[in-house]
């Protein structure tokens, strides 16, 4: 299996951070899966600094890929959009400050759907990231580059962001672990906003313990994000191999129409494994789930139409010609935004406009309350919920690009979690025709400890996570 | 059903210029998605309060102490056209 953080620590100790980072850079260079939008020219210098200054942070010398919507001082941040071509942030996001302090080496920026708007990394202006398990298939999205880079052994760990499943989807499609933290657990300072009431930055890795280690570094309070909440961390401390008496809820609505038979079978086998390990499960009902997808998209698009107003060719990014400011902005946005971004801005603008606000936006916010209440009721009786992360394994590149709605429907099992704001982790639970399938373990607010413990125990008692994608050594 | 003219109007509100050809395509795509959104009409929501934010925090204060902010030059470095410390744009009115 691929090296984890503890292996790397030994390796860096016996050789050097420079050697380790150089070997990962070599793998990136040899690969053609298009996982990166840019490589940090100073990656080796960062590693040398760790070696020469004997930096002893918890991630000293560890190379990490950062989703291209997280601001990195001095390193291009484009959100995989032509409108931000050439933009170099003058400051670091909170999570980047924390990573640098912990000694991590920012090796490059990973590919994504433009502004996070997609489920396949196909809307990137740089083209799709290929799935390491099958180059004809998508890596998932929107954090496709972050997941594919980890699965292909190009980095041991990465950061993504999850607005409606954008960490968990590519984690499931690429056979890695990915965590969407509780809303408010990780500061969004420096994350380029798409739908700010829904999204969180989250870690991806080949092991649950490495995801926990990253959370210990990035999940600290920061007053520059007013929605960041002070909470008890100790993510690594939660990692025990013990699920005796754990109460699992299995929501019937997450196994409905459109969920592939093989996927359902593998998830049920995983739940059976938990039973063997001493946990117990009950079926639960979350009746508002069928409405979550529509509510999610209305809210996400409405917030996007407002958040993306800042890309107007004025303060950053490049600019098209126009006789006045309005024409310049309108032309710039016409020429530099991709089709999916425009679709969402238009729909969001429509949903917020006079006469439609109550029918769409306000209605969606009320449905959001009902979805949230489903979770609150479920967690009165159970410790975690388990379900398929994605309805199917990775689909073919191009398969869903002509039909936006069919692409939206693949988010059916991930978006309710963002509406409610609870944490959720996707872990590998087997293979369907050679393609990885993810088990989603959902927890109560700020109870990452329980889902990390469950996921870690599952990993210790199974071997799905040890399998390597073809050609990866 | 949303019309081509409506798409052009929303495009103007959102400051996204739209060519006639694209407006037809957007009108059809947007209509399909709006039809799907229409399913929310069947949810009974009378008496339900909207959830704007799940984090139960409001009015987060900090001490009124000045702190360092970014250098002006660092911020202006990303702008296409600057003059005497200002960002220059085509005329607005």
Automatic annotation (TrEMBL), chain A:
InterPro entries to which the protein is assigned, alphabetical: Amidase, Amidase_CS, Amidase_dom, AS_sf, GatA
Keywords per UniProt: ATP-binding, Ligase, Nucleotide-binding, Protein biosynthesis, Transferase
Reactions it catalyzes: L-glutamyl-tRNA(Gln) + L-glutamine + ATP + H2O = L-glutaminyl-tRNA(Gln) + L-glutamate + ADP + phosphate + H(+)
PROSITE patterns: AMIDASES
Keyword Ligase: yes
EC number(s) from the headed UniProt entry: 6.3.5.7
Amidase domain segment(s): 19-452
A biological process from GO: translation
Major enzyme class: ligase
NCBIfam families membership: gatA (TIGR00132)
Name this protein carries in UniProt: Glutamyl-tRNA(Gln) amidotransferase subunit A
Native source species: Methanohalophilus euhalobius
Gene name of the record: gatA
Automatic annotation (TrEMBL), chain B:
Subunit structure: Heterotrimer of A, B and C subunits.
Gene Ontology terms, MF aspect: ATP binding; glutaminyl-tRNA synthase (glutamine-hydrolyzing) activity; transferase activity
Name assigned to this protein: Aspartyl/glutamyl-tRNA(Asn/Gln) amidotransferase subunit C
GO biological process, one term: regulation of translational fidelity
Family (UniProt): Belongs to the GatC family.
Known EC number: 6.3.5.-
Matching InterPro entries: Asp/Glu-ADT_sf_sub_c, GatC
Lineage: Archaea, Methanobacteriati, Methanobacteriota, Stenosarchaea group, Methanomicrobia
Function: Allows the formation of correctly charged Asn-tRNA(Asn) or Gln-tRNA(Gln) through the transamidation of misacylated Asp-tRNA(Asn) or Glu-tRNA(Gln) in organisms which lack either or both of asparaginyl-tRNA or glutaminyl-tRNA synthetases. The reaction takes place in the presence of glutamine and ATP through an activated phospho-Asp-tRNA(Asn) or phospho-Glu-tRNA(Gln).
Species this chain originates from: Methanohalophilus euhalobius
Keywords, comma-separated and alphabetical: ATP-binding, Ligase, Nucleotide-binding, Protein biosynthesis, Transferase
A matching Pfam family: GatC
Enzyme class: ligase
Catalytic reactions of this protein: L-aspartyl-tRNA(Asn) + L-glutamine + ATP + H2O = L-asparaginyl-tRNA(Asn) + L-glutamate + ADP + phosphate + 2 H(+); L-glutamyl-tRNA(Gln) + L-glutamine + ATP + H2O = L-glutaminyl-tRNA(Gln) + L-glutamate + ADP + phosphate + H(+)
Keyword Disulfide bond: no
NCBIfam families: gatC (TIGR00135)
